[in-house]
Amino acid sequence: MSDPTLARARAGDEEAFRRLTDPYRRELQLHVYRIVGSTQDAEDLLQETLLAAWRGLDGFQERASVRAWLYRIATNRSMDALRASRRRPEGTRRMTDADVPEPTRRAEPIWLEPYPDVLLEGIPDRAPGPETRYETKEAVALAFIVGLQHLPPQQRAVLVLRDVLGFRAEEVGDMLDTTATSVNSLLRRARASFESRLPATGRERAPVPDTKLERDTLERFADAVEAGDIDTMVELLTDDAWLTMPPEPWEYQGPAAIGVFLRDREVSRGRLRLVASRANGQPAFACYLPLPDTGIARPYALFVLALEGARISAIAWFADSGVFPHFGLPRTLR
């Protein structure tokens, strides 16, 4: 028996279409973000997905659920965007090697933006099915998203659909117009490449959000940044901590190397003001740079931190302040 809401939507009832699709908007946007790595592109591609669904309702034959049908559209739109190379991994400030201290390593540049925790609100906490390999919290963490961006588009989509969302191989094959055998082959290759990039397990877990331990650690970090106290910032780092600057290729590991980089930045740009936020399920800080003689601080960068106990194991430094509106952050500070 056909769904009466679907029938009304097919007849042109926009309110019925919204009732049909609204329960899946937030999770679809997160799904697109996992594949393309961009908050702004995820928002655009979600709108493209919903428009394509509205226009294609007559072609929906109800062999799959509405949710699976929407995931099919969103996944294919995302892969098309990747193949079209609409987003190039170029540095936001066009820095050169002469602008930064010698890094620990130069990584393959990838386009990546942080994802506001506020956009995670309202996503149903679906019980993981037998096909899933990763918990929801792990599958939104920045290290997880970085690992995905190194996979080819089709492998990326298959790994997310199978190991994160728990769709069966046959369902994924229908979404990608291929066979379950091909899906399983793509998944094996994706897992081998992807899991080699994930951080080692068995390390001290991050403190639970909004506990005293996390608050104390973040307060020490924020106070040190605003005071220009590089020594305290370095003391908070784990011995193998990383500082990265997506999409720039320079990466620094360890307190000594990160300290050299931070001191170089401190000299070149001056003190910062910080506003607390959260991204990718992790603590974050929006950074504002005061403009001389104006009483105003402008957006400068966003730091996303990974914590281990009372120490910081990773700092992702995003120089593109264009994501600030997605976090509800002010355009300027007084």
Tell me about this structure.
- It contains 12 helices and 7 strands.
- The chain is an alpha+beta fold.
- The chain folds into 2 domains: 17-195, Butyryl-CoA Dehydrogenase, subunit A, domain 3 (Up-down Bundle); 212-327, Nuclear Transport Factor 2, Chain: A, CATH 3.10.450.50.
- The protein has a 7-stranded mixed beta sheet.
- The longest helix has 18 residues, at 66-83.
- It is globular, with a radius of gyration of 21 Å.
- The termini are far apart.
- It comes from Solirubrobacter ginsenosidimutans.
- Keywords: DNA-binding, Nucleotidyltransferase, Sigma factor, Transcription, Transcription regulation, Transferase.
- This is RNA polymerase sigma factor.
